[in-house]
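for the record, two folds in this file. i put them one after another cuz i was lazy. first one right below, seq on top, structure tokens after. the second one comes after a little note so u can tell where it starts
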Amino acid sequence: MTAFKLPSTIAVVGLGYVGLPLAVAFARELPTVGLDVDAERVRQLRNGLDDNGEVAAEHLSLPNLTLTSDPGLLEEAEFLIVAVPTPVDHTKRPDLRYLVGASRMIGERLKKGAVVVYESTVYPGCTEEECIPVLEEASGLKAGVEFGVGYSPERINPGDMTHGLGDVVKIVSAQDADTLERVARVYELVAKAGVYRAPNIKTAEGAKVIENIQRDQNIAFVNELAMLCHGLGLDTHEVLAAAQTKWNFLPFHPGLVGGHCIPVDPYYLAHKAMEVGYQPEMILAGRHVNDQMGFYVAREAIKLMIDAGKAVQASSALVLGVAFKEDVRDVRNSKVVDLVREMESFGVRVVVYDPLVDDGRIRQLGLTPVPDPFAAQDDQASYDAVVLAVPHKPLLEHSADDYLGLMTKGGVLVDLRGVLPGDYCRERSHYWRL
């Protein structure tokens, strides 16, 4: 094994929910370049504004941190990390254009002896089959000989202050033992919970993708259970509370599954599975269940409005929360959009308020934003239905009476996650929870 020394400069390519916290963490230890091709994003970060709300302004001005959109600054980096999105296209197939583009950009500036580590979630085999050939072609160098390649899957959970980068064990992997040790030693600087050395890159890729698929499947199960419980006249939350008295029952709760990871990653593994001749029926079935939940909740709300005697096509509804989950600003793949559009298809006039998402972003989704309804005077904010879709902390500061006060007489209150006092709300409204 060759002698090891820390890199003189680290570069992180992609400054989103994954890359920015990573760049900030490394900048506390070593000179770090944080690069994003979005010049406006970089400008905001230089001015101390992380629009995602994940990194405070004071951490964006660390002396060792250089924020840039200039790929030329990658030339001196000895350790480069790729943290770019890996979405799916309109046919639900892996869209690798950002990954391939980042690989080409790095390859054109790659120096001998450097290490390139990928953090983006992919299917097993993607790094070696898709990324390394691009690096080699663009650089003219040979992987495993003139530069090293590793894979260390991101485990960032946006909005979660308890499980930050340093609090979660970091999986590391590489093409060879020497590169693996280099990757592990670098990540040990920021992964205070420790690193786990996977035997190879494919294993690490597989571990990451099944982490998210497992969660998708578990939520799909309780979502299907919730729909069944409603058909049987049962309260899902009461059924789950009783079941949780058994020591080995795993507590998951029904809800909308959105974002840039969980709704996407199953399609990556499914793509690879079908490539080798296996049909991943359970994975795709669970994805189908979760994909329909926004529509299901909307239809249940419409039924409740009819039961309440509301003239649906002349009714109004307020949806609270549009981010893909609580306490984040990210609206990517938010199933709240499906919920709103389904209600609108029945003729309901729907408006949206989210304390964390700015009005411009809401409009980009094709939705209609309104000011804080809790600040409205008298009957200015009276809706036939109120849907608490995403229980952000600022929304939880309001009482049940505050929510009831937003509705017209005999109104419908949809408490999607069941965070309000159910019995109290049932006595005072047409109340429903998933």
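(here's the note) second protein begins now
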Amino acid sequence: MVLAFFKNTVFITLLSLFSCGNSTSTPLNEQTSISNQKTIAEQTSSTTTEINTNIVFNNKPNDTTKRVGRTFIEDKNTIRTGANQFTAYMPLLKGKKVGIVANQTSIVNDSLDYTDERRIVDNHLVDFIMEFDNQVVKVFAPEHGFRGKADAGEIVKDGVDVKTGIPIVSLYGKNKKPTQEQLKDIDIMVFDIQDVGARFYTYISSLHYVMEACAEAGIPVIVLDRPNPNGHYIDGPILEREHASFVGMHPIPVVHGMTIGEYAQMINGEGWLKNSVKCDLTVIKMKQYNREMEYSLPIKPSPNLPNDVAINLYPSLCFFEGTIVSAGRGTETQFQVFGAPSLPSKIYNYQYTPQANEGAKYPKFKGETCNGLDLRQTPKLKLLNLEWLIDAYVANGKKKTFFNNFFVKLAGTNKLQEQIEKGYTAREIRKTWLKGLENYNQMRQQYFLY
């Protein structure tokens, strides 16, 4: 009885909100394609992010800010993710067959008070959408799976959600791009996954393929925006097209500095989808967010990023995945330590022994003692740290086999490996990134939402 009353109350509220024109830009016209719609974003407070000792990149939207798709925001003084703004996206799902791209981070939370009788805390988006009598027909799962338990790189199989009986389609199995057959019974797609702001974190690659497939099928996509915990800086070499892969699809730096919603707009606006198709895109903005904010993720985004320290260190330490050095997989301190048996213990005096655990069934150097460094007390990084990588290369006794073929894919270029092998310092390497970072920073500001 209470639930029925609540749903009716919410529905009436939604009608009132949208009849009053609470979207941020132009009135909605549901009969018109909006894939190329451009609006002017509201100005945020002026902030800057230092990328190098000699250069500062502006983090404020410029006067030509455009949005490729619709964007909504409710004007209240609370910080909430796109998923928590149900008044913005629930009306778009009414009467539609809904597909959802989701994992364990797709949570409606913040202890939202909907009525005096009910509070929802950490309710999964799939369950939440279904509570409003919406028809969810299929869930698509990225790397690590719907529940976020699979290892990095592990094939994820299709299945069925035990709780709801909804089919789950893997985007990290036989195909990374949804097929037209898999999309045929879907009217609208919702994408809600927590990213960490690194090019080689594959959720943005899944976003690309979902947008591309939906554009080809004529299916609108709603992206529920979430904070970027590494959104306070951009850094690293720009990916070169000849080195594109699923761990790097676009010409961006290693640390891209965009929220997932902004990134979706950039994919659309820069014509990165196959044959330059445009996705019918709607981004549901967050409230009162800016990219300089400290944000602690309530749920780990993948098995090997267990906390804020690991997430901050990840863009720097992931380079070790393309070397003979371990980045801590198979321990409880993943991406907070690094080491290898071949590193000298006098310099690398922190020791650990990787063992199989959740997210690392077969970790590098399983059962072997690694000499390394414990970085858990490292101050929050505002740039990539190259010294750890360079010093490990120099100290390691196996220079010829230090790098493997995966390193170039992670770096997005073969130049970084060549520079390290030639003895370049971190400062010298960083200078070669400046022009690319300047160009990227100018380009990305067109898609700022905050």
